[in-house]
Write a structure and sequence with these properties.
Blueprint: E1 54-57, E2 62-66, E3 73-78, E4 83-92, E5 97-107, E6 113-119, E7 126-129, E8 133-146, E9 150-159, E10 164-174, E11 182-186, H1 190-195, H2 210-217, E12 221-226, H3 237-249, E13 253-258, H4 281-301, E14 308-311, H5 329-346, E15 352-356, H6 362-374, E16 381-385, H7 394-408, E17 412-417, H8 447-462, E18 469-474
Parallel strand pairs: 11-12, 11-18, 12-13, 13-14, 14-15, 15-16, 16-17, 17-18
Antiparallel strand pairs: 1-4, 2-3, 3-10, 4-9, 5-8, 5-10, 6-7, 6-9
Helix pairs in contact: 4-5, 6-7
Length: about 525
């Protein structure tokens, strides 16, 4: 991604302080070995206590009403005054092993906390916070290991007056959850930032290596873009080789993101490298193969081989315009397959991902990949950029992600996402997102809002059916405001419009949102 406008080898197959909403003892009513009335249809609308469920906390704040996800009714939490309430169901006689709670949810936001949980299951309580989505329903999951043959399914709100949630169609089924294999970040700007004087600190203020700080937070994958011959000499083959050594030294995996350009490649620009200008389509196929093979074989030779590769970056309109435009699918397919073949020539087990922007655009994603499949394009995984302030509501994102996984039978991941922790700028360059009206409703531009956004995106990827949700890359986690490290590689005076969306604050300290790397 970059819009100046706003411009695995093994991949393939806080608790609220003081909150005391605990379930009643195990001998409470409604004990059963399977979830009862998970769709809240047994009583019709208006039941204060749904059949099979119990409640604890504020009287009258939990009830069923019309307007379900799959049926006629749903569970809702709401009160005209501040409230804390838990709706729960105790299960006993379970066979020990892995289980997964699935729920469809909506929330107007504003709560101190709202979540689903599995607890008293023999280990640590597992919980998933409800996303803020006031219209579309979102599916979330909570995995757990049951030991001791029992577990409590729990829906919780610690809310202010007028806050609401809807929950429906809960299921509790046996089966292991793969969790997120990719908890990564794009750190392509890091080398130049450091060269220009950029500093990175731990939460306590100690100066350190940005990669080491992020790895300590739980990051396990780094994404590095490759430009062919950039004006500033960064993000080229030599620089990628240098940073790859650091990535692997931290024990992290590496995704290599080929732009096939000298500068930013995205839906609005796919400029052919200057050295390839005027080349015929046949020559460009050889250029793509040679460049891809050259970089990846060099990485392999120094012991830092790629664990996943992107052939192209946000290629909604194709790449290497005009020869590789989507106006000529046969040629675009040939160029992509040339890159794919080069990746497999270096290591046949390295997954190749194709990456589109507009992660909430179901029709556009289908159109693109349907054409790719029809033209024989080869790929192993699908990456989508999803920026909530540009790419539609969370429910559209989930629909698109789930559909891509099912329709094409491939694992999916978020190749890029980010969110601001403040709106003002640290340098003289206007931030890409800098006014409240641009934000996603329910997610303020604060450190807590940034963290909540990342947890929400990770939860949606985790919920992709059949374990096909690989994970998430945070885009440009280390692109802080450092003079000389602006968006234009040809202009040292260009500013950075992204520093308010980095994972390091204006005091250079790592932000709370980095905790998302610890997502299960």
């Amino acid at each position: 991604m970059f819009h100046p406008r706003r411009t695995l080898k093994a991949l393939l197959p806080p608790l609220v302080a003081g909150l005391a909403l605990t379930a009643l003892p195990a001998q409470s009513a409604h004990a059963a070995s399977s979830l009862t009335n998970g769709g809240f249809e047994a009583d019709g609308g208006g039941a204060a206590t749904p059949t099979g469920w119990s409640e604890y906390g504020s009287t009258g704040a939990s009830y069923t009403e019309a307007g379900g996800h799959g049926g006629g009714n749903r569970l809702s939490h709401w009160s005209s005054s501040a409230y804390r309430v838990e709706t729960y169901q105790y299960l006993s006689g379970l066979t020990d092993g892995s289980y997964r709670l699935t729920a469809w949810v909506r929330s107007g936001g504003g709560q101190n906390a709202a979540w689903t949980a599995l607890k008293n299951c023999g280990g640590t309580e597992q919980r998933t916070d409800l996303p803020v989505s006031s219209s579309g329903w979102i599916r979330i999951v909570v995995p757990v290991e049951v030991t001791g043959n029992q577990c409590t399914v729990s829906v919780n709100s610690d809310a202010n007056a007028g806050n609401w949630i809807n929950v429906d169609d809960l299921t509790f089924t046996p089966g292991a959850s793969a969790g997120l294999q990719v908890k990564g970040a794009d750190v392509s700007s890091l080398a130049k930032s450091e060269a220009e004087g950029g500093v990175y600190r731990t939460a306590s203020g100690a100066t350190g290596d940005a990669l080491g700080i992020l790895e300590s937070a739980g990051m396990n994958y780094a994404r590095l873009k490759v430009w062919v011959n950039p004006a500033d000499g960064y993000n080229n083959k030599a620089r990628v080789l240098e940073t790859a050594k650091r990535v692997k030294a931290q024990g992290m995996k590496l995704l290599v993101d080929f732009h096939y350009s000298d500068t930013w490649a995205d839906p609005g620009a796919q400029s052919t490298p200057a050295a390839w200008a005027g080349h015929s389509y046949g020559r460009l196929k050889r250029d793509v193969h040679h460049h891809t093979y050259d970089v990846l074989s060099a990485l392999e030779a120094q012991g830092t081989g790629a664990d996943m590769v992107q052939v192209g970056n946000e290629i909604n309109g194709g790449m290497l315009w005009d020869e590789g435009s989507t106006d000529n699918w046969a040629q675009l397919a040939g160029l992509i397959n040339s890159g794919y073949d080069a990746v497999k020539r270096v290591d046949a087990d390295t997954p190749v991902a194709l990456h589109l922007a507009e992660g909430g655009d179901l029709a556009g994603t289908r159109w693109w990949f349907d054409n790719a499949v029809a033209h024989g394009v080869r790929f192993d995984a699908i990456g989508l950029s999803y920026y909530g302030y540009w790419h539609g509501p969370l429910s559209d994102f989930q629909t698109t992600l789930d559909d891509a996984a099912a329709r094409y039978g491939k694992p999916v991941f978020v190749a890029e996402t980010a969110y601001p922790f403040r709106l003002d700028s640290e340098d003289a360059h206007e931030n890409i997102i800098d006014v409240t009206g641009e934000l996603v409703p329910g997610y303020p531009a604060t450190p807590a809002g940034q963290r909540a956004w990342m947890n929400t995106v990770a939860n949606i990827v985790e919920a992709v059916p059949n374990g096909r949700g690989l994970g998430v890359f945070y885009w440009e986690a280390t692109w802080t405001a450092v003079e000389g490290n602006g968006w234009d590689p040809a202009d040292p005076s260009s500013g950075n419009g992204w520093e308010n969306q980095a994972l390091f604050g204006y005091d250079d300290r790592v932000l709370p949102a980095a905790a998302w790397f610890r997502h299960r």
